[in-house]
Amino acid sequence: MEAQAVELCFYSTLTMLGLLQTEGYARTIFTARRPLLNEETIEQRVAVRLDRQQIFTHWPPPAVTAVIEESVLLRAIGGEQVQREQVHPTRKATDGIRRVRERQPTHHGSG
Length: 111
What we know:
Order of helices and strands: EHHEHHE
Number of strands: 3
Structural class: alpha/beta
Strand content: 15-25%
Distance between the termini: 44 Å
Number of domains: 1
Shape: globular
Number of helices: 4
């Protein structure tokens, strides 16, 4: 169903959306998972997660609305390098797609 979608809408408060994760970020998520996964299972799950990104190569690409809690962008999952690759705005996986990126601030001032 996802592979044929014309529009995708997401809201994330804890981690980057699976469909938008880089290889390093996905590997970190699966490595930290409890109960622990063996290396083969981790590699299989990372490959499947990355394969899902093929939806972005379809023409026309799906419209994507992703509302991501600010804390997700600040949380250094996998360390600085992994996080830097994850939030870089020109990520290969999403190049050329029609998208609306929204950041949901963590703190709201009262005045």
